[in-house]
Design a protein that fits this description.
Structural class of chain B: alpha/beta
Shape of chain B: globular
Distance between the termini of chain A: 18 Å
Structural class of chain A: mainly alpha
Helix content of chain A: 40-55%
Radius of gyration of chain A: 26 Å
Order of helices and strands of chain B: HEHEEEHEEHEHHHHEHHEEEEEH
Strand order of the largest sheet of chain B: 7-8-1-11-12-4-13
Strand order of the largest sheet of chain A: 1-7
Number of strands of chain B: 13
Mean pLDDT of chain B: 89
Low-confidence stretches of chain B: 1-20, 24-39
Helix content of chain B: 25-40%
Shape of chain A: globular
Largest sheet of chain A: 2 strands, parallel
Number of helices of chain B: 11
Strand content of chain B: 5-15%
Number of helices of chain A: 24
Largest interface: A-B, 85 and 88 residues
Oligomer: heterodimer
Strand content of chain A: 5-15%
Number of strands of chain A: 12
Mean pLDDT of chain A: 89
Largest sheet of chain B: 7 strands, mixed
């Protein structure tokens, strides 16, 4: 019944010191937990170092991918000019490793199929009554003849809806001619077209990113076909269907070379649609899509109100947009930037100087206090409780999202009660129990020692130097990584992270998982190796990583007939 | 028949703040034939979920099997006491995952272990069909929808803690969290004229024909694991196709959804719960489906019950409080009692809809379940379970049934199947089941 590839072994599973529940040394010896892949530095994100030059392509698995809600919305928008985001009410995707586009989990259910039908009906009705209608139908049914015009529509619209030409030999168009005739029956031409659109939007050829093989084909590795590759490019970089230039590139064979693919990747990255796709990645990787669930006790955070949530969201989006599209795109800048984006209200809230109005502007921060994404209000609000900061959540975020480590859960019988807020102690003092307690210390040492470095920030991202009249201690320690040692404050931690090849590797892994809708596997060894080299050569420019991701075995090849 | 006249005869079920779906009274619309099924009323099955265990000493009834008093947490069910079977001594059977949240959730309705997969602890989906879907296989074939799965705050961290219904091994069913989407889907074909219904059916059939033709084209051109995925798609389309010819009761009016609320906001959780319950009540009453389940939150419930005066901490975290922490325990009781109140609300809805000589509630079996007994240490023992309804005389109700300690909950699932007319002797993992629960 096993259906999933074994992912877990690929993560650097940091083992807690000793067996939970046993007395574990806390700080005397450097009982540094090591990543289970056993490779010092773990810079390949779990991949063993392999000799890759001249080896025949090894693409790893490429499971069938169904459009998720975001991709469905974008595709309908680009196909029909329908920007109503009809998929927003479809059942939500399960998350694997943080992402909503995991191929294995995007399966079909009755409810989903029912909603596809419902949505397709409404989209088709809008399509034939919109101003866009004339551009969809390539002929005049009066002069060309209704049936001929309908057939023409089926093949031209079908090519875009199914993202490849319909093959004549298998007569893929026949079912849609029948649909047209049924829709036309007792009504008009337009009704026929409407029903064709409704049907095509429910076809597996629309709903899945199909990469078909001839029936009964022997198992082998083969280059991804041009139209399939066009879809790999557009869904990775846009979260949507190919545009006409990309279709043309596929048709003219220009995607048969790596250079041709890279050229299209760079073109796609210049389009606003790429911004949206990159934003969707960041919202998931940096947990920003959880802002919706944030609720704070007003009395604990004077001056804070839920109206700050959209400001936090804007801040992080504006910052990432700037770094990615106006700045240098580098991981170092994401981690270390001595600036953020804020309007007057948010700047006042943080105690920053600069903006005068409601619009967001680039604002300098004190680099000794704040650094890059780690100190922005949205993330810090998410990594906190409703009534206090949480060193545990902060540490877990750094450990899991930035170092790609996995921390074992507390045992079923652990006392996992969060210390109650207090009027006399600091957060650190209250959470110190974790790292002192032998039962908890083994794991919490991996989390809290990172999280304590954030102590200068309260649960909504404001700087503080005291808590309950006690001076904040923001000293921490990084254990179990390639940048071990003590640090003081987030800015210092960020410097360490910027020096860590594990963090760079983790960024690479996150993008790989998002791009491919799956985790890395052993078969991706050479792909990851090549990516790591190119990422390093670019000075860890994420934009170059995105292009590099289109140049790998995993992207350009697939296993057929398996 | 004037529209005014029809409207005036509608029974409007009001929910909090006027958010409820207005529900028509099915059997009293003049000029429209009664549903044939209305004479006796079809048997229906509903699953009602509670999260993260309970506070045992505030949940457990006191007294004897037939003369017992409901506990503070179950007190909201007092009006339905003679319809209840309260169960004690049952252990949720489950295995896998990083902790018993996942194990209990996977086993709760399937009676199986979790397979391996990409979620916490290397776990995946449960290894069998869930009891609601097994029942739907038998009683869900003649209705417009096989079953309804509805949620109210299942929006984040979607993993095997957020799925309880399964079509089969590794086939979880995602609940619909938007009451509006569910409403549109379920009631879209209601209240249209017969010629329109016929034309619509012909068009729908031609769309399905094209879809199935494409699926047939695609299937042999896929690798084997992808074929499994697309086969599930085929099955779902065929399921819908098989229901195209099913007429919706002419007496069933499309309810109205009331003022739009943001169903993704945590503070709207109570309102979304009510909308989903009203929707399900209407769908059951209209015989659009006979099986429904409510997964309002999730195992590891992230909801902060601010409307109960508990805005500072979410339910799951609270469930880990020490037994000695009286303040926290009282809050947990409040949350658990609130959940029971929701069930009472739903039962009240069903009871308000006449059917045959009684009400829809008379023909409905509700299973109020939980993945675990106690949140603090993830205990699967003494899971709080309540059955509402006698399954057409199958159960003797108005009882508090104590089973021997560690009786596997698979036995309860078998009894539910039996009560719904499914003649099973075992369910889920055979080694976790010794037959129907004794003493029912």
């Amino acid at each position: 019944m096993k259906r999933f590839p074994a992912y877990v072994g690929l993560l650097s599973l940091v083992s807690c010191s000793g067996v939970i529940g046993e007395s574990a040394p806390v700080s005397d010896t450097p009982d540094t937990p090591s990543p289970t892949n056993g490779e010092a530095g773990g810079a390949t994100g779990g991949m063993p170092s392999v000799a890759c030059a001249g080896v025949s392509p090894s693409p790893g698995p490429s499971p069938l991918r169904r459009l998720n809600r975001r991709e469905y919305n974008n595709t309908v928008r680009d196909l029909l000019g329908d920007a109503t985001e009809p998929a927003n009410t479809f059942p939500l995707e399960e998350r694997v490793l943080g992402f909503d586009n995991n191929a294995d989990l995007l399966t079909a259910s009755s409810a989903l199929i029912g909603q596809y039908n419902q949505a397709a009906e409404q989209i088709a009705a809008r399509a034939v009554s919109s101003t866009n209608y004339a551009s969809l139908v390539p002929c005049n049914p009066v002069t060309a003849g209704e049936d001929a015009c309908a057939r023409s529509f089926i093949s031209t619209f079908g090519r875009r809806a199914f993202r490849r030409p319909m093959t004549v030999t298998a007569d893929e168009t026949a079912p849609y001619v029948a649909v047209y005739l049924k829709g036309r029956e007792g009504a008009d031409f337009k009704s026929g077209i409407q029903l064709v659109i409704r049907a095509m939007l429910q076809s597996p050829k629309f709903l899945y990113r199909l990469e078909l093989s001839p029936a009964g084909a022997p198992a082998e590795v083969s280059a991804v076909g041009s139209f399939e590759l066009a879809c790999r490019l557009s869904y990775f970089l846009w979260g949507s269907m190919p545009d006409e230039p990309l279709f043309t590139a596929a048709e003219s064979g220009r995607l048969r070379t790596k250079e041709g693919v890279a050229e299209q990747a760079r073109r796609l990255l210049r389009d606003p649609r790429a911004r949206a796709a990159v934003t969707a990645f960041h919202r998931q990787w940096l947990l920003i899509d959880r802002l919706d669930s944030v609720g704070k006790i007003a009395s604990v955070f004077p001056g804070y109100g839920p109206e700050f949530l959209p400001l936090f969201e804007n801040e992080t989006k504006a910052f990432l947009d700037h770094v990615m599209w106006s700045g240098d795109g580098k991981v170092d800048t994401l981690l270390l930037a001595p600036f953020t984006f804020a309007n007057k209200k948010l700047a006042d809230f943080y105690g920053l100087l600069g903006p005068a109005g409601a619009g967001f502007e680039k604002v300098a921060v004190n680099p000794a206090q704040r650094a890059g994404v780690l100190t922005q209000g949205g993330l810090l609000s998410i990594l906190a409780k409703s009534n206090q900061a949480s060193p545990v959540r902060r540490g877990l975020f750094v450990r899991e999202q930035m170092f790609c480590g996995e921390v074992p859960p507390p045992p079923d019988d652990a006392n996992v009660v969060v210390p109650e807020p207090s009027k006399t102690a600091t957060t650190r003092e209250r959470f110190a129990q974790h790292t002192v307690s032998p039962a908890c210390g083994g794991c919490h040492r991996l989390l809290d020692t990172l999280g304590f470095g954030f102590e200068n920030f309260n649960g909504v991202g404001q700087w503080r130097t005291t808590e309950n009249a006690k001076t904040i201690d923001a000293s921490g320690e990084v254990v179990g990584t390639d940048v071990p040692g003590p640090f003081r404050g987030v800015a210092d931690l960020a410097q360490k992270m910027a020096r860590s090849s594990e963090v760079k590797s983790c960024v690479l892994s996150q993008w790989f998982r998002y791009a491919h809708g799956r985790a890395e596997t052993a078969a991706d060894g050479c792909t990851v190796e090549a990516l790591r080299r190119q990422f390093a050569a670019s000075g860890y420019d994420v934009r170059e990583l995105l292009v590099a991701l289109t140049q790998t075995d995993a992207f350009l090849y697939r296993k057929v007939g398996s | 028949m004037s529209r005014k006249g029809l409207l005036s005869r509608r029974m409007v079920l009001r929910g909090a703040g006027g958010l409820a779906f207005a529900l028509p009274l099915l059997d009293e619309v003049p000029g429209i034939p009664r549903r044939t099924a209305a004479a006796a009323g079809p048997k229906r099955f509903v699953v009602f979920f509670g999260a993260d265990g309970t506070v045992r000493d505030k949940w457990l009834p006191t007294g004897s099997e037939t003369a017992f008093s409901l506990s503070p947490i179950l007190a909201p069910l007092e009006p339905f006491k003679q319809r209840l079977v309260v169960l004690d001594g049952i252990t949720t059977m489950g295995k896998g995952g990083k902790d018993n949240h996942q194990a209990g959730m996977g086993g709760m309705l399937t009676g199986t272990e979790l397979n391996s997969g990409p979620f916490g602890g290397g776990s995946g989906w449960a290894n069998g069909i869930s009891v609601d879907q097994e029942i739907a296989k038998h009683i869900g074939t003649v209705t417009k929808f096989r079953s309804l799965e509805l949620s109210a705050y299942v929006l984040f961290n979607l993993d095997n803690n957020t799925r309880m219904s399964y079509l089969g091994p590794n086939q979880p069913i995602a609940p619909e969290n938007s009451p509006y989407a569910a409403f549109d889907r379920v009631f879209s074909r209601v209240s249209t004229s017969q010629p329109m219904i016929d034309a619509d059916r012909a068009r729908s059939q031609s769309v399905i024909d094209a879809t199935l033709a494409d699926l047939k084209y695609v299937l042999p051109r896929l690798g084997s694991s992808d074929r499994v995925k697309v086969q599930a798609h085929v099955d779902a389309v065929r399921d819908i196709e098989s229901r195209l010819g099913i007429a919706v009761s002419a007496g069933c009016q499309k309810p109205s959804a009331g003022a739009l609320i943001d169903w993704k906001k945590m503070e709207n959780f109570p309102a979304v719960c009510r909308l989903q319950m009203d929707l399900a009540a209407a769908a059951l009453a209209c015989d659009l489906t006979r099986v429904a389940s409510f997964l309002f939150s999730r195992s590891v419930d992230a909801v902060r019950y601010s409307w109960l005066g508990i805005p500072e901490i979410d339910h799951h975290e609270l469930s880990h409080a020490e037994d000695s922490n009286a303040v926290a325990q009282e809050k947990l009781v409040r949350i658990n009692k609130w959940t029971t109140e929701q069930l009472a609300y739903f039962l009240g809805r069903l009871q308000a809809i006449p059917e045959g000589g009684g009400t829809v509630l008379d023909n409905t079996l509700v299973y109020f379940c939980n993945p675990m007994g106690k949140g603090k240490n993830h205990l699967l023992q003494n899971t709080p379970l309540v059955i509402v309804g006698n399954g057409g005389g199958h159960f003797k109700t108005g009882r508090f049934v104590r089973s021997p300690a560690n009786t596997p909950h698979n036995n309860v699932l078998v009894s539910l199947l039996n009560a719904m007319g499914v003649g099973a002797q075992t369910f889920g993992r055979p080694d976790w089941c010794t037959g129907p629960l004794q003493g029912l």
